[in-house]
Amino acid sequence: DAFTVSNVTSVSPNTGQVGTFVTIQGTGLFSGGSLDKVEFDNATATVQASPTANASYVVVRIGPHAQGTVDLVFTSTNGFNVTLEDAFTYTAVPTVSKVSPSYGQLGTRVTITGTALLGGGAALTNAILDSVEATIVSQNDTLVVLTAGSNNPGEGDIVLTADTGSRVVVTDGFLYLFPSNITSVFPTSGQAGTRVTIAGDNLLGGGDEVDELTLANLTATVVSADALRIVV
């Protein structure tokens, strides 16, 4: 049987970037045949569920394409196709210009700078640093701030997913360091003015200095600090 399109009534959303979920609605969309593929210009979309013969819509996830307005093409299993001209506009391709810092551990504040970081959507729904979900602190199209979750040492991708399904990926964009470890505190008791030495490994957590240090819930003055020893 041939796959025919009687009428496409809407394409929603009609703008976006690679990964965006698009719902195509119409009447008689699948009468007389079965769906082979859906393309936006020459970019093949992934059908999210096999539509039934009497379905009035199909949901697809679009593939990569350069910025611009493109045609929507349905193709049936026998090669018959139906084209809806100028059906979808690809927005500007997201770019990441800087990740700072590009390394850290649990709690590290990571700032991602670029363009179109929301991928044509209104907001991010998920952010990943090396396969681990990060907490989204703030976000817009040019600046995203995250807090890293807990992970084993290693390097992996940064993935920002928008509410449309669009994804921004930075390959091997973040390196998890070995976690910090305190091996000794001397002395372990004292009063105001007591000099305390804290020894351990990776005490700066990948940073350059100690931002704040507390002893028994009271802020202490940092005298010196490096990755192996902090004196307050």
Structure overview:
- It is a single chain.
- This protein has 232 residues and is mainly beta.
- Helix content is 0%, strand content 53%.
- It has strands spanning 7-12, 15-16, 21-27, 35-40, 43-47, 57-61, 68-76, 81-90, 95-100, 103-104, 109-115, 124-129, 132-133, 135-139, 143-147, 154-162, 167-176, 181-186, 197-201, 214-215, 218-219, 224-225, 229-231.
- Strand 16 and strand 17 (167-176) form a beta hairpin.
- It is rod-shaped, with a radius of gyration of 26 Å.
- The chain starts with 6 loop residues before the first strand and ends with a strand.
Could you list some keywords that capture this structure?
about 230 residues, mainly beta, five-stranded mixed beta sheet
Number of helix segments?
0
| H/E element order | EEEEEEEEEEEEEEEEEEEEEEE
Radius of gyration, taken over Cα atoms and rounded to an integer in Å: 26 Å
Strand order of the largest sheet: 1-3-6-5-4-7-8-2
Instruction: Please provide the count of β strands.
Output: 23
Ends distance:
79 Å
- Average pLDDT works out at 89
- Shape by Cα distribution: rod-shaped
> What would you call the structural class?
mainly beta
Strand residue percentage? over 45%
The largest pleated sheet is described as: 8 strands, mixed
Q: Any low-confidence stretches, pLDDT <50, length ≥5?
A: 1-5
Q: Helical residue percent?
A: under 10%
